[in-house]
Design goal:
two-stranded antiparallel ribbon, three-stranded antiparallel sheet, 17 helices, mainly alpha, 5 strands, single chain, 42% helix
Length: 384
């Protein structure tokens, strides 16, 4: 059966209603969003963790912005045209749909709800759209875009966007179509799900696992491994601390899955920095004005021993393969001088070195050497 998308829309709609409550002084103490999220997970927890639910699909629908490996090539303008065709809208209803283009008007999602409410779809209970169906459709649409991650593009099939979305929109009520539209645009704004708290309510270990494997699929695979597959999703706080210690003994980074970055806090001064450290031992590193990258090396893979991940977590090896020979030389890979046996993970900053000035060139010079899915963006007016 799967997990009905309407249940997720219930949560999003409740959070949307909370926006009217938040400005009050009472809401500061009651934290309505946290209460709403906790109640929703308590009510549907057993259904979320049952075998019929694809938890990766559910998380992908909850946090569409975190699927950086998926690019749909659909902005509001093009998506509005697709929706108009999917719903078979006439000229008058099309003009209502396009009210999102007016300054100060509603967003596209709200316009979709307003238009569809005029002729509400009747959806039988056994034909409700599930998050699994939506996730499958979005994966197919993303596979056709060259800006998507390599694993997504490998699933490429001859997919027509209208044919893919039309059956879904016709089986959604107006409210759910609003949230689906916002999901495609990767923003539920004005609703914002508090990421850390929501993930904790999903499973108490999930935020911690994402620090080791910064993808939903990687973290979920760890959850179903021994011994974590025996842990309850929401133990009491004391037991949770003990279970975290047990889980830590079984966690290790995986080559090919980006490691999550630690949280960073900005200090206003050296004194403030010292206060934030609170007597703990800290490390100091030189900051270069470059582009962050995380490099995974596995010498057991003869065809593709190096993978390079960008700050967002996207596999950007194809765009940055020019630095691989330099990496192989500096790491002395496959030689007696190599400092590791099979695998290693490195973090660094990609910079441009200027022989003319004998130093690191400005950040803006990077775009002349780093492509984005094969395209060099914003260099037409640059000097040689």
């Amino acid at each position: 059966m799967g997990f009905p998308f309407s249940l997720l829309c219930d949560l999003l709609s409740s959070l949307d209603e909370n926006r009217l409550v938040k400005p009050t002084s009472t809401a500061t103490k009651t934290r309505p969003d946290s209460r709403t999220i906790a109640q929703w997970f308590t009510h549907y927890g057993s259904r979320i963790h049952c075998a019929d639910t694809d938890r990766l699909a559910l998380l992908s629908c909850m946090f569409p912005e975190k699927r950086v490996d998926r690019v749909y090539w659909l902005q509001a303008t093009s998506l509005a045209r697709v929706i108009g065709r999917c719903l078979g809208l006439g000229s008058s209803r099309l003009s209502e749909l396009n009210r999102w283009q007016k300054a100060g008007g509603p967003d596209l999602g709200q316009c979709v709800e307003d238009v569809m409410r005029q002729a509400e779809n009747y959806v039988p209970h056994d034909q409700e759209v599930t998050v699994e169906e939506l996730d499958r459709a979005m994966g197919l649409i993303a596979s056709r875009c060259r800006f998507s991650g390599p694993d997504v593009r490998r699933q490429r099939t001859a997919v027509d966007v209208d044919a893919c979305l039309s059956p879904l929109y016709r089986r959604l009520c107006s409210r759910d179509a609003k949230w689906f539209t916002r999901m495609i645009l990767k923003s539920y704004s004005p609703v914002v799900l508090p990421s850390k708290y929501t993930l904790e309510r999903f499973h108490f270990l999930l935020p911690h696992l994402l620090q080791f494997q910064d993808t939903f699929s990687g973290a979920l695979n760890m959850l179903i491994s021994e011994p974590m597959n025996h842990f309850p999703a929401h133990p009491d706080p004391k037991l949770a601390t003990n279970l975290c210690s047990i889980a830590l003994e079984h966690l290790s980074p995986q080559i090919g899955i980006k490691i999550g970055r630690p949280e960073y806090y900005k200090a206003r001064s050296i004194r403030h920095c010292h206060q934030m450290a609170k007597g703990r031992r800290i490390s100091v590193e030189r900051k270069y004005d470059g582009e962050y990258c995380q490099i995974h090396v596995d010498l057991r893979h003869s065809k593709r021993p190096v993978q390079i991940f960008s700050k967002s977590g996207k596999d950007s090896t194809e765009d940055r393969d020019g630095i691989i020979p330099i990496l192989e030389e500096s790491l002395a890979m496959r030689t007696a001088q190599c400092k590791f046996t099979h695998r290693c993970i490195l973090e660094g900053e990609l910079v441009v070195w200027s022989d003319k000035h004998g130093g690191v060139a400005g950040f803006h010079k990077l775009r002349k050497f780093l492509s984005r899915s094969g395209s060099y963006i914003g260099i037409d007016q640059d000097s040689p």
